[in-house]
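Possible regression after last week's pipeline update?

I re-ran a chain I had predicted before the update to compare outputs. Posting the input and the new output here so someone can diff against the archived version. Not blocking, just want to make sure nothing changed silently.
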Amino acid sequence: MLTLTTHTLEKLELLLKTAGYKVRYEKGNFKTGACLLQNSKVIVINRFSNLESKILSIVDLTRELEIDYNLLDDKQVALLQQIKQTKLQL
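New output (post-update):
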């Protein structure tokens, strides 16, 4: 299970960056905490969301993304597998 800390958020951001995605924090009227811009590798996260919402939003999007494991190092592969196999519980 993932801990809801700033360090976890940084690890998730680095995983997505390594996979070729750009993570941006913007203000806006988001229904959810994050969105994937159509057919581009840009993830927009509501900057006013709390830490928990940011992490949960990134994890939800990461589960849906097709990420090439060859781009990631061993620790990132383990993190991605953990994300895809488990669901975060509040």
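Follow-up from reviewer: compared with the archived run. The chain has a mean pLDDT of 86. Marking as no regression found.
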